[in-house]
């Protein structure tokens, strides 16, 4: 069971969602986690382990589990975690890093005081209140990178990097360097992931048209290009997803 929970409105600029996931497998199950351009903080509350930062992913991740699994997570909006940590986000890319090994506004009480024995809703409420208490300590977000992300989303990943840099009032080199530090991946890679996410939603909508027309409508050169991107980012064909 996977459930999403909205953050407090004052945190919505930084956090996309809280989420909880529970499952039990009598036999080993494999799941694929697809890249979404976001950074998560995840902890397993059935093991009461310390939280970990899971950095921006550049391709799919396959996980296997057996028995009971119970997780909660904080999914930050692209760039949102930069308000909470002094570490460049690209240091977490495609990695899993213990939260308290990094310089951030989180202290060890965050892990020690979690009410493990209570319900998932109570734990998420604790996390939400903890983050609200840290609002005065947050670093300001880079408005230019925030604006650049909005341009990529509005274009559904179909906008050139020089145009974004110009609109964000940065040189191309400055823009790419700042974007990498704040988002964890290059603007080109982020655009590809966002185009992939948009195409998946387009396919899920059930619009009945050829794969070639879908590819062109979603900004790919042709259906072969779309298939190549899906294999690279998800390990699957569009029809399999």
TrEMBL record:
Listed A to Z, the keywords are:
DNA-binding, Transcription, Transcription regulation
Gene Ontology molecular function terms on file: DNA-binding transcription factor activity; sequence-specific DNA binding
- Pfam families listed in its UniProt record: DUF6597, HTH_18
Q: Which residues form the HTH araC/xylS-type domain?
A: 142-241
List the Gene3D superfamilies: Homeodomain-like
The species is uncultured Dysgonomonas sp
Q: Does the keyword Membrane apply?
A: no
- Protein's name according to its UniProt entry: HTH araC/xylS-type domain-containing protein
């Amino acid at each position: 069971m996977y459930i999403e929970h909205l953050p407090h409105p004052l945190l919505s600029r930084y956090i996309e969602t809280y989420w909880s996931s529970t499952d039990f497998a009598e036999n080993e199950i494999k799941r694929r986690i697809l890249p979404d351009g976001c950074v998560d903080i995840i902890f397993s509350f059935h093991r009461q382990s310390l939280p970990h930062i899971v950095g921006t992913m550049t391709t799919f991740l396959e996980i296997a589990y057996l028995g009971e699994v119970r997780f909660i997570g904080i999914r930050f909006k692209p760039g949102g975690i930069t308000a909470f940590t002094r570490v460049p986000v690209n240091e977490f890319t495609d990695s899993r890093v213990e939260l308290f090994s990094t310089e951030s506004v989180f202290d060890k009480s965050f892990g020690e005081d979690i009410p493990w024995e209570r319900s998932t809703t109570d734990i998420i409420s604790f996390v939400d209140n903890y983050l609200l208490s840290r609002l005065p300590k947050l670093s300001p977000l880079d408005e230019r990178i925030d604006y650049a992300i909005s341009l990529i989303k509005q274009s559904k990943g179909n906008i050139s990097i020089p145009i974004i840099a110009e609109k964000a009032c940065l040189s191309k080199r400055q823009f790419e360097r700042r974007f990498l530090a704040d988002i964890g991946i290059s603007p080109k890679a982020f655009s590809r992931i966002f185009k992939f996410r948009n195409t998946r939603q387009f396919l899920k909508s059930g619009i009945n048209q050829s794969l070639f027309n879908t590819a062109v409508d979603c900004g790919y050169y042709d259906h072969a290009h779309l298939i190549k991107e899906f294999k690279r980012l998800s390990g699957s064909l569009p029809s399999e997803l």
